Amino acid sequence: MIPIALVTGVLAGIREGSAQDRSISFISVLFTSIPEIATAIFLTVIFALGLGWFPAKSRGDGWEYLVLPVLTLVLYDFGYVARMT
Questions:
Q1: Are 8 and 62 in contact (CB under 8 A)?
Q2: What is the pLDDT of residue 9?
Q3: What are phi and psi of 34, to 5 degrees?
Q4: Of 7, 32, 31, which is closest to residue 85 (Cα–Cα)?
Q5: Do 47 and 68 meet the contact criterion of CB atoms below 8 Å apart?
Q6: pLDDT exceeds cutoff 80 at 63
Q7: Is 4 within 8 Å of 79 (Cβ atoms)?
Q8: How far apart are the two ends of the chain, measured CA to CA in Å?
Q9: If phi over 0 gives left and psi between -120 and 50 gives alpha, with beta otherwise, what is residue 52?
Q10: pLDDT tens digits for range 14-48
């Protein structure tokens, strides 16, 4: 999360006021403003139930069971760090 947020924050800061800055700021605020539980449900519906790429329930110890919870936390905290950068 930190490397992605730092890179996007720097990219937004390099071209202040441009479309790139506006889109990165919009995405950061969007991901931060949505509660984590809503993000988790949204990701589960899309990637587990819709596409079937990941399991919807965590019943094992493989990496595929960790993708959706980790992605939920990364997306939520990404907005904070990118905006601070």
A1: no
A2: 85
A3: -85, 130
A4: 7
A5: yes
A6: no
A7: no
A8: 13
A9: left
A10: 888 888 888 888 888 888 888 888 888 888 888 88
